[in-house]
Design goal:
Protein name: Imidazole glycerol phosphate synthase subunit HisH
Largest sheet: 8 strands, mixed
CATH superfamily: Class I glutamine amidotransferase (GATase) domain
InterPro entries: Class_I_gatase-like, GATASE, Imidazole-glycPsynth_HisH
Pathway: Amino-acid biosynthesis; L-histidine biosynthesis; L-histidine from 5-phospho-alpha-D-ribose 1-diphosphate: step 5/9
Subunit structure: Heterodimer of HisH and HisF.
CATH topology: Rossmann fold
Helix content: 25-40%
Number of strands: 14
Keywords: Amino-acid biosynthesis, Cytoplasm, Glutamine amidotransferase, Histidine biosynthesis, Hydrolase, Lyase, Transferase
CATH architecture: 3-Layer(aba) Sandwich
CATH class: Alpha Beta
Radius of gyration: 15 Å
Oligomer: single chain
Structural class: alpha/beta
Order of helices and strands: EHEHEHHEHEEEEEEEEEEH
Strand order of the largest sheet: 2-1-3-4-14-13-12-9
Number of helices: 6
Shape: globular
Number of domains: 1
């Protein structure tokens, strides 16, 4: 069972539908007892970094997420849900993140239109199980103005936009994140979620 964390941020239903299409049972919840039984956890997100962290605190979700991370439960962050996995974000105001990944989130520094919106192709930085069903240069769908600046060893894939490399997939141990929306990325997104499904079985 995958628990999609309900913290009043993001497109919960579209993420849930994407998992159900590949045969993964999901529950949208912020209940600690439910989260503690999850085989996998998904942090979706659309909005701003400070509001996301404020809501995690309001619903008392930070400690249970840290506990599940320490227990080795696979965690997947999507879009803003990926960004809050980092140590801090500079959107609106400097805000402490979950600190599951090293690095910070800042406004994209590119010579191209912001927000970065639309389809872009993935470039692989390293091998990772999330990539097992897809190939380099496959296209995925992005919508964001802020991006993660991770440490090099936690960068799995990126895309090129303007003159810059944009972080696309990050991972460390059982914590993973996609800046793009796999639930909106057609067959490629489906294959990434299927790879995550294999990790929780």
């Amino acid at each position: 069972m995958v628990v999609i964390i309900d913290y009043n941020i993001g497109n919960l239903k579209s993420v849930q539908n994407a998992f159900e299409r590949i045969g993964v049972k999901t529950i949208v919840s912020r209940d600690h007892d439910v989260i503690s039984q999850a085989d996998g956890i998904v942090l979706p997100g659309v909005g701003t970094f400070p509001v996301a962290m404020e809501n995690l605190k309001k619903y008392d979700l930070i400690d249970i997420l840290k506990e599940r991370k320490a227990a080795g439960v696979p965690i997947l962050g999507i879009c803003l849900g990926m960004q809050i996995l980092f140590e801090q974000g500079q959107e609106v105001k400097l805000t402490k993140g979950l600190g599951f990944l090293k690095g910070e989130v800042k406004l994209m520094q590119v010579n191209a239109k912001i927000p970065h919106m639309g389809w872009n192709e993935l470039c692989f930085a390293k091998k990772h199980p999330l990539l097992k069903n897809i190939k380099e240069k496959d296209y995925v769908y992005f919508v964001h103005s802020y991006m993660a600046y991770p440490c090099e060893k936690e960068l799995v894939a990126y895309c090129e936009y303007g003159d810059s490399k944009i972080t696309a997939i990050v991972a460390k141990d059982n914590v993973m994140g996609c800046q793009f929306h796999p639930e909106k990325s057609g067959e490629v997104g489906k294959q990434i979620l299927l790879a995550f499904k294999e990790m929780i079985q």
